[in-house]
Amino acid sequence: MRRFKYGWLVRNAHVNGASLIFCALYAHMFRAMYYRSYIGKRRRVWLVGSAIYVLMMCVSFIGYVLPWGQLSYWAAVVITNFINAIPLIGRWLKLFVLGAHAVRDPLLRRFFVFHCFLPFVLFFLAVFHVALVHNSGQNDVISNRTPAIGSRVNMFPVYVLKDLVLVGLYSLILCALCLAFPNVFSNKLNYEPADFYNTPADIKPEWYFMHYYSVLRVFESKLAGVFVTSLTLLFIVVLPYTHEDLPSDALKDLYKPSVVVLFLSFALLGILGALRLNYWLAVLAKLCVCVCLSFFVWPVIARLTRVLAATLVTWRC
C-alpha cells in the first residue's frame, strides 16, 4: 500500500474500520440480548445475525494473517495448532486449511482468496438480515414506547434518521483514527516481516478476539480450550431456543441483570487476554468463563429441575 498515493489512508481505514465494525457488532448483540430480540418471529433474525458474527470473525482473522508480519504469522501458527487438537479430524482439517505441512505461501494464497470472496457473502447475509428485521419488526426502546399494543413504528423517518446519526458519528471517529491515531488498534510489531525462526515474546490477536484468546490459553489442554470456545459460539446460536420461554417470573426478573453480568464478564475476559497470565489471573479468567456459560445454561437447568420435580410429585402420588 505504500507504493500508491494515499495507500496509507486506505490501509488505516481498512484496519480501523474493522475494529469499529466489531465495536458496533458487539453493542448490537448485547442490546439484542438485553431486549430479548430473538423471540417469536425474530428468531430467524437472530440466527442470520449469528451467522454474520461467525463469518465476520473468519474474515477478520484471515485479514489479520494477510499482512504476513510477525504477529500475523505466529497467530496463524497458534490457531492452526489448536485446529490440530480437534479429535479424529483435527490432523486432516489442519492439512486442508494450510495446504501444506506448515504455515507457508499456500496458506497465504488461500486466505487471500477467501478474504476477497467472503465479504460478498457477508453483504448478502446483511441484506437478508435487514429484510427479516423489516418484516418482523424491531424490539428496542423506540418500538417499546409505542402507545398502542401491537402498533408499529415506521422505519422512516425514526430509524433511518437514528441510523444516519450513528453513521455520521462512525465516520467522524474513523477519520480521527485514520489521521491522528492510526495505530491505536494495531500492534507495531506486526509491521516487521514474518520471521520463521524468531518467536515474539507475546503473541496477541486483535482486541475483538481477546476474550476467545483468554479462554483458549486459560486451559492447560488445547482440546478443552477449543471445546469451551466452540460451546460458547454454539450457545450464542441456540439462544432463541434456550431463552425464549423462561420458566418462571423470577427468572424473567433476573434476565436483564444477568445480561449485564454477562457483558462485564465478556469485557473482563478481553482485558485478561491482553495481560500476562499468572495463577490468580487464570482463576479469574476461569470464573468469567463459568459466568458466561452459566448465563446460557441456567434456563435449561431450571426447566429440567421443574420437569424433574413434577415427575417426582407424580411418582409419589
UniProtKB/TrEMBL annotation:
Span of domain Cytochrome b/b6 N-terminal region profile: 1-142
Cofactor: how and how many bound: Binds 2 heme groups non-covalently.
Record field: transmembrane: 13-33, 45-65, 71-90, 111-132, 164-185, 223-242, 254-272, 279-301
InterPro entries: Cyt_b/b6_C, Cyt_b/b6_C_sf, Cyt_b/b6_N, Cytb/b6-like_sf, Di-haem_cyt_TM
Gene Ontology MF terms: electron transfer activity; metal ion binding; oxidoreductase activity
Any Pfam family: Cytochrom_B_C
Localization (cell): Membrane
Domain Cytochrome b/b6 C-terminal region profile: 145-316
A GO CC term assigned to this protein in UniProt: membrane
Keyword line: Electron transport, Heme, Iron, Membrane, Metal-binding, Respiratory chain, Transmembrane, Transmembrane helix, Transport
Cofactor(s) named in the record: heme b
GO biological process: respiratory electron transport chain
Membrane topology: Multi-pass membrane protein
Family the entry assigns: Belongs to the cytochrome b family.
Role: Component of the ubiquinol-cytochrome c reductase complex (complex III or cytochrome b-c1 complex), which is a respiratory chain that generates an electrochemical potential coupled to ATP synthesis.
Subunit structure: The main subunits of complex b-c1 are: cytochrome b, cytochrome c1 and the Rieske protein.
PANTHER family named among the record's database cross-references: CYTOCHROME B (PTHR19271)
Protein name, as recorded: Cytochrome b
UniProt organism field: Candidatus Hodgkinia cicadicola
Gene of this entry: petB
